[in-house]
Write a structure and sequence with these properties.
The structure holds 2 protein chains of 2 kinds. By secondary structure, chain A is mainly α. Helix content of chain A is about 65%, strand content about 0%. In chain A, α4 (about 70-95) packs across α7. Chain B is an alpha+beta fold. Chain B contains 7 helices and 7 strands; from the N terminus they run αααβαββββαββαα. In chain B, the strands form 2 sheets. In chain B, strands 1-2-3-4-5 form a 5-stranded antiparallel beta sheet. Chain B is globular, with a radius of gyration of 23 Å. The chains are: A mainly alpha, B alpha+beta.
């Protein structure tokens, strides 16, 4: 029973109390760049999840064999290999989305969440736990991405998944899409608001002075 | 073996790198055909867009025939409309040994001038001829490219399609938007005396609504002067090489 709870916690923790974006404040740049539309955000979230989960798993499997002196390079190699795989697969089967994500898929390599989880978790834990930890952190990252992208696409373009949701009558009555929402600055502010809401709901997350 | 020894470290690194390299090489080889198909499909879609068949029109057309819009149908439409594809030499004659569709402008333009071949796609839609010419140039940050379609007088613009690698979102990147591309329709690339003028993107040309179709100008995007200049230069520079061919076309018409 205790073990099962641990597994659930591994997935659940990063969704909220230990969220990589809002609490650990990692991987912010990509969260700002690809949250203009929901679809690319979801694909990006999935890509990051796959990369974190499998690199966690692979590094954890090798953790007793990796020479300590070159462990970072080995981790990077694992991450880079997975990222290139994901990129190539997207180019083959989701060409339009991969064009929108452009360089950001490649930049998953430099996403601090990935290296952070490898160093902090995978090197010291069993493979299955590491896999769950990776899925959890990927999901935590993706959750924030999707929340931010939802508001940015809705308020910035008046659409969701490229389908018009704000009715024409609103525009006729003088409503205008907020073009600011399309710019990275508003993404940062949206992330800030998400952090604010989260911290006021869970006061234990607030730093003590 | 001692895990901190140099030999172990080197061996470990060698094994890991080899595994990774083999994995990636296999993946790239397996996925290559699908990726190439995507690129060809995009190219065909872009070219057809310039003569008035955008994604929506194509989807409707396919649906009316009980088909789905996929690689096969797009290729079928492309072959149906674009009966002629030429690779032109700089004097306007046709080089039959080169397949125009396979010319990659980016690499082509690095060749010496007399070796360069200029692709042109000639469409026949319900008796009307269109000339589609691929474009390639430099924007502010990186490459920009596109296609421009001319009507059968080889003068009036039918439509354009632009793409870019890394122009600023909201500013330079707007060149790929419909509202911008639509401005080109109806513009002329030659003036009344038959001199080649191209199309200039200009701010403050006293014609923001773009009603004057004879001025060889369209309204540039505010805040993206360098991307706009890039588009102007790209059109000027690329079309210039087709002038001998256009001349022949016009002579034949008269």
């Amino acid at each position: 029973m205790a073990k099962k709870n641990k597994w659930v916690d591994l997935i659940k923790d990063p969704l909220n109390e230990n969220n990589p974006i809002t609490v650990q404040v990692l991987g912010i740049c990509s969260a700002l760049a690809i949250t203009v539309k929901l679809m690319p955000a979801i694909v990006m979230a999935l890509s990051v999840m796959v990369v974190v989960a499998f690199s966690n798993l692979i590094v954890s499997l090798m953790r007793n064999y990796i020479p300590n002196r070159i462990r970072i390079i080995v981790q990077l190699l694992v991450v880079a290999t997975l990222v290139i795989l994901v990129d190539q697969i997207l180019k083959a089967f989701a060409y339009d989305v991969s064009k929108q994500l452009s360089v950001f898929v490649g930049l998953i390599i430099t996403n601090c969440i990935v290296m952070g989880r490898l160093e902090a978790f995978a090197l010291a834990n069993k493979p299955f736990d590491s896999l769950l930890d990776g899925i959890g952190n990927g999901a935590g990252y993706g959750l924030i991405l999707i929340i931010v992208a939802f508001f940015r696409e809705l308020l910035g373009s008046g659409t969701l998944f490229d389908k018009q949701v704000i009715p024409q009558s609103f525009y006729d009555a003088g409503y205008v899409n907020n073009a600011m929402m399309l710019l990275p600055a508003m993404a940062l502010i949206t992330v800030g608001i998400v952090i604010w809401v989260q911290r006021s709901m869970y006061p234990q997350l607030t730093e003590k002075e | 073996m001692d895990r901190n020894s140099n030999l172990y470290t080197i061996l470990f690194a060698a094994v890991v790198v080899t595994v990774s390299a083999v994995l990636l090489a296999v993946a790239v080889m397996v996925l290559k055909p699908a990726q190439e198909r995507n690129k060809r499909q995009e190219k065909m879609t872009d070219i057809m867009y310039t003569i008035g068949f955008d994604q929506e029109a194509l989807t409707k057309k396919a649906a009316a025939e009980g088909l789905k819009l996929n690689y096969k149908t797009i290729e079928a439409y492309f072959k149906k409309y674009f009966l002629k594809q030429y690779a032109l030499k700089s004097d306007g004659t046709i080089d039959k040994s080169v397949n125009a569709f396979d010319i990659n402008l980016k690499t082509e333009l690095k060749k010496p001038e007399n070796k360069q071949r200029y692709p042109i796609f000639i469409a026949d839609v319900d008796g009307k001829t269109y000339y589609v010419i691929p474009l390639y140039g430099k924007g502010l940050w990186d490459d920009i490219w596109g296609y421009i379609a001319l009507e059968q007088d080889a003068n009036t613009v039918k439509g354009v399609k632009f793409g870019h690698k890394g122009e600023t979102p909201g500013l330079g990147a707007e060149i790929t938007k419909k509202w911008f591309e639509n401005q080109f329709t109806g513009e002329k690339i030659f003036d009344k005396d038959g001199t080649f003028r191209g199309i200039t993107l200009l701010k403050g040309n006293n014609d923001p609504e773009n009603k004057d179709k004879e001025d060889h100008e369209i309204d540039a995007i505010s805040g993206s002067t360098l991307t706009s200049n890039g588009v102007t230069n790209m059109i000027q520079e690329r079309l210039k090489h087709y002038l001998p061919f256009f001349k022949k076309v016009r002579q034949q018409k008269n």
